[in-house]
Design brief:
Blueprint: E1 4-5, E2 16-17, H1 36-51, H2 79-82, H3 88-98, H4 108-122, H5 135-146, H6 164-185, H7 190-207, E3 213-215, E4 226-229, H8 277-282, H9 286-310, H10 316-331
Parallel strand pairs: 1-2
Antiparallel strand pairs: 3-4
Helix pairs in contact: 1-5, 3-4, 3-9, 4-7, 6-7, 6-10, 7-9, 9-10
Bound molecules: zinc ion (ZN).
């Protein structure tokens, strides 16, 4: 029996399809509308709708502010983030932590806070209040926020007018700022510190997504410098030069597109919806594997820096100034530098 079309009257939890929005996870959403903002809104709505394929619920339940319970990162706090498509960062964080030696590994409680901080870069908690007005209002608020030039650096992306060198520089400054904030609150407010670690992980992990930056090689044993930083938002007048590459493809027609390049999984029918750590691990793409190594190195580094700060060896500024440049040149350098 085919699943029913969702409606507000559908029984909560019963499997059903959202009308007109049947998307496999990782599918490319194509829009050819003239107005970019309308296209973005459409894309977000489809994503919202696609994620509600999982179960039927009251539309207002799509992203209600429930208590987050990651439990092995299989659940979010709402339908939107519970969809497997959006769990990439959580898995990268989990596998990154698992690479550390047992005495340096974060506890699962700490890792939940890190993952939550990471996820909130894409889905800021403050915006959930718009769900009170409806899904459309929530998606508009999210689009407006996601399109702001000043937030592009959180995802290792170009803003509306900078070039790759400047964008990489902006992102590294952000990484420095987050690391400093984490170290400053490590001893007094661990939750705040770990949230910054999560935000830093997000930026690092996004830099390995082929939808965000083009790197010189996918060979896991080679150095992995960055050739070009891509754009997610529309470029300002005069800044949409032919060398700009976009998140969703090569032309500005693809502004705001969701793309399979942003998935942590390799292509293949067997990897459409992997579940459980073993299956997910066997489905990881090469860029995802490299993002995990960079995540592990950061998690190890930030803990060592925190120990140095706690021992009173030096101020957080001095420790960050001493410890971060090597990390940056190994994982976030432009090829031409
Ligand atoms: Zn992101």
């Amino acid at each position: 029996m085919p699943p029913r079309v969702c409606s507000r009257l559908s029984h909560p939890g019963a499997p059903c399809f959202v009308r007109g929005a049947l998307l496999a996870p990782g599918a490319v959403i194509r829009f050819r509308e003239r107005a970019v903002s309308a296209s973005r809104r459409g894309a977000l709505l489809l994503i919202v709708a696609a994620s509600s394929l999982l179960t039927c619920a009251d539309p207002l339940d799509l992203c209600g502010p429930k208590t987050a319970n990651l439990e092995f990162f299989s659940k979010g706090d709402c339908m939107l983030t519970r969809a497997s498509f959006f769990q990439g960062h959580e898995w990268l964080t989990y596998f990154g932590n698992r690479r550390l030696s047992e005495d340096e590994r974060f506890s699962s409680a700490d890792l939940q806070i890190i993952a939550e901080g990471n996820r909130r870069v894409d889905w800021p908690k403050e915006l959930l209040v718009h769900m009170n007005a409806g899904v459309l209002q929530y998606s508009s608020a999210l689009t407006e926020y996601t399109d702001r030039p000043e937030v592009q650096r959180f995802h290792f992306l170009l803003d509306d007018r900078n070039d790759s060198a400047q964008a990489a520089e902006d992102a590294r400054h952000e990484l420095e700022r987050l690391t400093l904030r984490a170290l400053e609150s490590w001893g007094t407010d661990k939750r705040k510190a770990l949230t910054q670690v999560g935000r830093a992980n997000h930026l690092i992990q996004d830099s390995f997504s082929p939808a965000h930056a083009r790197r010189d090689t996918l060979d896991i044993k080679q150095p992995w410098c960055i050739i070009k930083v891509k754009a997610f938002i529309e470029r300002a007048d005069g800044f949409d030069t032919s060398d700009i590459e976009y998140h969703g493809g090569t032309s500005s027609d693809t502004v705001g597109h969701t793309t399979t390049q942003d998935s942590i999984y390799r292509q293949g029918r067997d990897c459409l919806e992997p579940s459980g750590a073993d299956q997910v691990e066997s489905c990881l793409s090469e860029p995802a594997k490299r993002a995990i190594l960079a995540t592990a190195d950061y998690l190890e580094l930030v803990q060592r820096m925190a120990v140095a700060v706690t021992l009173g060896n030096a101020s957080p500024e001095v420790i960050v100034g001493y410890g971060l440049p090597d990390y940056i040149s190994e994982h976030l350098a432009l090829c031409e530098e």
